[in-house]
Specification:
The chain is α+β, with helices and mostly antiparallel strands. It has 12 helices and 12 strands.
């Protein structure tokens, strides 16, 4: 007589979990990182990484963690999951890039009500695709079945990245000066922020949810893996700062990398908002003032460039395949906190 599996009966399938670990091990393609090597396989209690900092004068470790938010729900509703894994990598790694750091390794946390093999594989395949873009190995992770906390078929994601930066070439807000130029690095869409509002609009006006729009809404967040090459070439005196435009929009993120006493003067008409995004916002009845603190509006990252380095930056960005647009300048505002000021009409 077989012994009943009490844990499985409670909703946790450890055998399937072991199968997914085996899949990760067998299907894994090693990712080479010039800053070190993974020296442990998937499945142990901890991951091991041997760094190589020989080319750095004063290495400082950097870390970041993030998730994908309610974009997960939209992906589930339309069975488009692989891009969510790329989103997860991008949301973590792009934060590292803002100080001139390079990622060393990545870890993920996948929590679900009931583990479903194909769903898991779709998401992890996306994570791998994103990590391949930025030459970052997956060092480990955690898969948790939590029946009672998540409904069957639901899941959530979290990512964790550790990187390194040479202190001598770190991007710091103190480097930013008045008269510098602001360039938006084009986004692929809303990236992974503001989707609670996006989903509310789609629920209120279902006719907006065309296949074409949903595909655009689920486009993965861009991983700005070319940024380290920009920083290496230009250095912190020419590329003075970088802001990752996530939740809170441009006005909530750009001042984080600019010192007090400066205002970022932006021409709203120059923000590279894709026409489909602009139309979606208009059709939802929202104004620029209402959505500016929520969305990136097409500016996935903003670079602060010394005025005398602008032409060099534009040439290098083009060579690296980055789409950029000048949107403003920094100006002196003595005694005032760092801020964003708009002129021009967005729509």
């Amino acid at each position: 007589m077989s012994t009943p599996d009490l844990y499985k009966a409670s909703g946790v399938d450890t055998e399937l979990g072991d199968e997914m670990v085996d899949w990760l091990q067998k299907d894994a393609k090693p990712i080479s990182n010039p800053l070190g090597n993974v020296v442990s396989g998937v499945g142990g209690f901890a991951g091991l990484f041997k760094p190589n900092f020989s080319g750095l004068k004063d290495p400082i470790l950097v870390s970041s963690t993030d998730g994908v938010g309610t974009k997960v729900i939209l992906g589930l509703e339309h069975n488009k999951l692989q891009g969510l894994g790329i989103d997860l990598v991008a949301m973590c790694v792009n934060d590292l890039y803002t100080i001139g750091a390079r990622p060393l390794f990545f870890l993920d946390y996948y929590a679900t009500g009931t583990l479903e093999g194909e769903q898991f594989k779709s998401v992890l395949s996306g994570i791998r695709a994103g990590l391949a873009q930025c030459q970052t190995p997956l060092l480990g992770g955690e898969t948790a079945e939590l029946p009672g906390l998540y409904k069957k078929g639901d899941f959530d994601l979290a990512g964790f990245v550790v990187g390194v930066v040479d202190n001598a070439r770190m991007l710091k807000k103190e480097n930013v000066t008045a008269g510098s130029e602001l360039y938006a690095l084009a986004s692929s869409g809303f990236h992974s922020n503001g989707y609670s509002l996006v989903r509310k609009w789609l629920t209120q006006t279902p006719k907006l949810a065309t296949n074409d729009l949903v595909t655009k809404l689920l486009a993965p967040t861009i991983i700005y893996h070319q940024v380290p090459a920009l920083v290496d070439k230009l250095g912190p005196n020419k590329i003075q700062a970088l802001a990752n435009i996530t939740g809170s929009g441009i006005s909530g993120n750009l001042p984080r990398v600019v010192p007090d006493g400066l205002v970022c003067d932006i021409d709203a008409s120059k923000i590279p908002t894709p026409e489909w995004m602009r139309n979606f916002i208009r059709q939802s009845g929202a104004t620029f003032e209402q959505v500016e603190p929520v969305f990136n509006l097409g500016a996935g990252m903003i670079a602060v460039i010394a005025k005398d380095a602008a032409e060099e930056f534009k040439t290098l960005a083009k060579d690296l395949g980055l789409t950029i647009a000048k949107i403003g300048t920094t100006q002196s505002s003595a005694g005032s906190p760092a801020s964003v000021r708009y002129h021009g009409a967005w729509n």
